[in-house]
Amino acid sequence: MGKVTNKKDYQHYMELLQKALQRYPTDLHAYCLMPNHLILGTIHHTPTDLIHYIHSVYVHYFNQRYDYVGHLFKGKFYSKQIRNNMQILDTSAYIHLNPIKANYTKLPEDYL
User: Are 77 and 51 within 8 A, CB to CB?
Assistant: First the structure.
């Protein structure tokens, strides 16, 4: 996701996600703020609409908070369509196990 440096930053990002989900009706199936990974089920908008909104507002917040100038997010947002239930289960498991693979925690439920 880019630079999220402490719990307050994570909380702010999650608040923006909530606002974005209201603004762009979407089913959020799974997420992991590591700094990456969301599974979204879109209703009337593309995932790009939602992520663009969140990231543009978050960049402004982050730059003001840390007196930062420059690119905040590495690379472009990437999305891939999930086509069946098995794929969504596999992707969700990958997302929730990501903190373990990155050695952030030993149990998924202990991460944030």
Answer: yes
